[in-house]
Every structure is written in C-alpha cells, then in structure tokens.
Amino acid sequence: MFDSMSAYHRSRGATTTTAAAKDKQDSDIKTVISKELSQLYSEIRKLKDTINELNGEIRANVTKVLITKKVVVARMVT
C-alpha cells in the first residue's frame, strides 16, 4: 500500500510539474505572439504612412497634369 501511495504522490507531482511547464510554455508562446503582433503593427503603420505619402505625390502630379492641360488648351484656343 505504501508503494502505491508513493506512486500516487509522484504522479500528482508530475502532473503539477507538467501543468507548470505547460503554463510556462503557454506564457512563452503568448510573449512571442505579442512581440510578433507588435512588429507587424509597426510595419503596417510604416506602410500606411508610405501609402499616404504616395497618395499625396499622386495628387500633386495629377494637379500638375490638369494645370498643364488647361494651359495647353488655353494656348490652342488663343
């Protein structure tokens, strides 16, 4: 009976150790995922800034083309 009790306590201790190891592993995984998401969010913000910058350049170029077109049409009319 003593042997079976010792085996029971050993198995309970192993379960607790396994649960603690699993909790640690889960915590490590959450940390890695959090860091990866943070990096992705940073990259997304950089891309958004780049897109906004390019949109501004496109608008400026379209405005230049429209002005040039108006000047050319005005010269053709006169």
Please write the string of helix (H) and strand (E) elements: H
Helix content: over 70%
Low-confidence stretches: none
Strand content: under 5%
**Distance linking N and C termini:** 113 Å
How large is the count of helical segments?
1
The major pleated sheet works out as:
none
State the main characteristics.
78 residues
Describe this entry's structure for a reader.
The chain has one helix spanning 2-77. The termini are far apart. It is mainly alpha-helical and 78 residues long.
Task: Give the SSE map.
Layout lengths: L1 H76 L1
What is this structure, in a nutshell?
The chain has 78 residues and is an all-alpha fold. It contains one helix and no strands. It is 97% helix and 0% strand.
